[in-house]
Amino acid sequence: MLVEVLKSKIHCATVTEANLHYMGSITIDEALMQAAGIVAGERVHIVNNMNGERFDTYVIKGPRDSGCICLNGAAARKVQVGDVIIIMAYAHMTLDEAVSFQPSIIFPTEDNHLPQ
C-alpha cells in the first residue's frame, strides 16, 4: 500500500505577479525550487493565507534568485500581488518509507529569497 505524504513545502512565500493571460501554472524562483526539492512540471497544491483559496497547478522554473512567485492563467484569479501563499508537493511512498521520511520545508524571506 502507498500513502501520499508531504514531500516539499515553501512556507509563506509572497506573490510577486499574477498573469491571467498565460496558460496556467506557477512560476517559482529556481533557488526556492531547488531548496525545497520541487522540479519543473511537478504538481503542487497552493494555499492562499489571505483569502483561503486552495488549488492545484504545476511548476515552471523562474529565474534564479529573482524572488519570483507568479500565478499564471486561471490561478491568477485566486491571488493578488502581495498575498502570502504556501506551496506544497506530495509523494507516494510505502508506509515504512513514510514513517521515517522528512519533508523539505523552507521559509523564504519576505522578498522570497533563502534566509542567509
Report on this model:
By secondary structure, the protein is mostly beta strands. It has one domain: Barwin-like endoglucanases (Beta Barrel), CATH 2.40.40. It contains two helices and eight strands; from the N terminus they run E-E-E-H-E-E-E-E-H-E. An eight-stranded mixed β-sheet has the order 2-6-3-5-4-7-1-8. The N and C termini lie far apart (40 Å).
Rg calc: 14 Å
Total number of distinct structural domains: 1
Using the alpha-carbon principal axes, give the shape.
globular
Order of helices and strands: EEEHEEEEHE
Q: What does this entry show, briefly?
A:
This protein has about 120 residues and is mainly β.
Salient structural properties:
single chain, 116 residues, mainly beta, Barwin-like endoglucanases, 8-stranded mixed beta sheet, 2 helices, globular
Write the topology of this structure.
Blueprint: E1 2-14, E2 17-19, E3 25-29, H1 30-36, E4 43-48, E5 54-62, E6 69-72, E7 84-94, H2 95-100, E8 104-106
Parallel strand pairs: 1-8, 2-6, 3-5
Antiparallel strand pairs: 1-7, 3-6, 4-5, 4-7
